[in-house]
Amino acid sequence: MAQVTIAVNGKKRTAEVEPRLLLVHFLREQLNLTGTHVGCDTSQCGACTVLVDGRSAKSCTLFAVQADGSEVTTIEGLADGDQLHPLQDGFWEEHGLQCGYCTPGMIMSAVNLLNDNPSPSEAEIRHGLDGNFCRCTGYQHIVNAVQHAAGTASKE
Amino acid sequence: MAASPVLPKLVGQRVKRREDPRLIRGLGTYVDDIKLVGMQHAAFKRSDLAHARILSVDVSEAESRPGVEAVFTGAQIAEFVAPMPIGTPFPSPDHRAVAVDTVRYVGEPVAVVVANDRYVARDAADTIVIDYEPLPAVVDPEQAMTGQPAQIHADFENNLAVALVPSGTGVSADLQTVDDTAVDKAFADADVVVSQRMYNQRLAPTAMEPRGVVAHYEPGKDTMTIWSSTQNPHILRSFIAALNGMGQDQVRAIAPEVGGGFGAKINIYGEEYVVAGLSKRLGVPLKWAEDRSEAFLATTHGRDIIGYLDLAATSDGKVLGMKLRLIADIGAYNMLLTAAIPTLTMMMANATYDIPAIRTTLTEVFTNKTPTDAYRGAGRPEATYFVERGMDMLARELGMDPGDLRRKNFIQPDQFPYATQMGAVYDSGDYEKALDLGLKNAGWEELKQQRDAARAEGRLVGIGLAMYVEVCGLGPSSSLPTGGWEHSQVTIERDGRISATTGASPHGQGNETTFGQMLADQFGVPLEHVTIHHGDTGVVKQGIGTFGSRSQAVAGTALHLAGGKVKEKMAKFAAALIEAHEDDLVFENGRISVKGVPDSGKTFAEVAGYAYVPVPLPEGLTPGLSEEAFFEPANNTYPFGCHISLLEIDRDTGEPTLLRLVAVDDAGNLINPLIVEGQIHGGLAQGIGQAMVEEVRFSEDGQPLTASFMDYAIPRAADFPRFELDNTVTPTPVNPLGAKGVGEAGTLGSTPCIVSAAVDALSEFGVKHIDMMLRPEKLWHIIHGGHS
Hints:
A: globular; B: 20 helices; globular
């Protein structure tokens, strides 16, 4: 067992973990932060995306011990109280989700995307979300949601 | 009372979804998010071989591991879990949830471990040693039909799950006599016949949430609660009860937040039976959460059907006759609806056309592959694909515009209701209107010029067009062994809020919003005052579930009828309270008042309160405001549309790029156009996925070659252009809402219109047909020779 200290959504968490414990299972099983989902086991789908020290990362591809000493933000930590993050608001306004399973990871990836590029073109949004799969929406409303958040929404 | 605000009418509006606030905050509860005190975890050991006899299963190492509660082999499971039932009237081989003596596809469960941790359970499962005697495997259905080299089930000679079933013109209702005269004459009279073998390939439905189940048997009460990622908790409840020797009153099935289904979560799976059975046997709550790698092997696949099509026509493009011989590869076993899915392909062989003579035949074949079952569209996209590709070939053969050819053969608006050669009765339609709008929105003539100009530059650009007609709103009980009705109960609570239940079990469809809109309008109350309960047999008394694009047309109608009943009763209470006649009352803006005199009435909550403390009790009334309704539609509904695509193929690499997708869909009346748009987008994405990037493949010995997202592509955001949607509105007479259903529509028109565009793009190479998916390598060979 190894001891890790990870600041999750602004709160320091110290725990004894198996070295092989995936970060996503640390978040879900030990901290009960079940908003971060698992959609595959080969790092393609992006449902488990969180921010590690401000950068998007697939939490199924990191061991908890690798995140020792870092700051992790999950979907539960994105809103400021009742104030939704602009991306959460965008996904709601633009019907950017249906079943909602990919949504937390999709939003966290989009946070990273807009941090890097606050005014992305449609093509840049589509390429920027390459690591996140959605099976419900066909992505068009997700693109609209990101544009809404970026304030670059252009009406169809 | 303060003046009530004026409430807008919500039906028909783009209302934001009420489901979203919890989902965008990560506060939805999916099955794998559920934890119960003392909960154990199950892991399945699965077959590595496609066909083999099990000689021995050694679980000694697994049993000895710390944290392992128990290990069960298939033979042990068979002692307390009955064989798997199916939901169709077709003959079916013995199918055990965990294999007892023979495995028939890679991924079939062979043993199960129960442990106190999911990692421990999986590790222990990996230590189980199985001694197999390998048997020959067969993965090609046409090979399997020879009975060689593998005979998969003892009582199914030549691996025929369903031997040749005829349908269409000249076939008697009992299928016993077949008269080919009309069909033969159509082909004899024809000026031109096009014939083509086509393959509608196998797909993995791939909901983003894999399957999962938690079962909690409580010995003291002798009750079972089962949470499952399912589309139909009521059907799940029935089967779980039956297989555990329990009554339906003793089992509560809950579909919590469900992360997509697409048909693959209709089936009741072996893992659900086993987890429930083990919870009961061990007296512990038990969870199993499917990995994606397992999902590719063990969650049902879709499609996988070969169509031999012959179309007979006159030289001016009137279709005289059609023959369609279907061979469906259903994989290793019959699942809940497996055998019924390809019958829908037969049923929809008329497509949108008035075809005088049709003969279809269907054969379903076992192979050593994952079983198939419903996948979005379920039989109808296959029919649409075969017929529309045939129409495109015919247009090409005749040198006709593909739109003109279709126009010449459409069922006309005055022919509805239209009884097809295949036994369907199309409810309503105006196909030419959808075609015209599609052509207009695509700019069809300009599109052709654009294509020709690109070709002049040496580019490979093509356009494709397809019409479709869907069968939705399933359906009368005569067509569904589960029952074809839906149920709803609407309750006006004592505080004037509205609770409603629906037997539909949404997993992304947004029924909390659309059904809320309907009730808010029906009662003139704010949407926030309406709660829609679903997906829990402990709360929702009866239901069938969500599939076959039936939520709005069938469950929505049940809700509307239950709402109507309770409104009628509430009006009587209001009439007594206001001292007015009930026929003069209106429900609007949170009040019930005499029409034209808003101040005359009482608030909704005041009337509700009176109904629960009725002093005095109006004559003829009982207390309370809660009414239920079952709705059984007299027929299915038949939405339709026109899809058009523009596609370019890179001459050097063979890579296809979809440049435009223009869709016109007619789903009848719409409750929430925003949600409808989302449904069409999603359907298009899956149809385009089938046409361009998706295919489940196996090696000749039955090893899956596409068992992860590294090998099986589902479309990504950059794969699509911006979809161009529009709609026509032809209400259905089948239900009072006029709504037809829309969940699957996008998967129908998209595949043939894209493949036809690819064929058009490569027309200079003389290609007549290309089987999906449009793999660049395949297209490159057409462009550069070698083989096609």
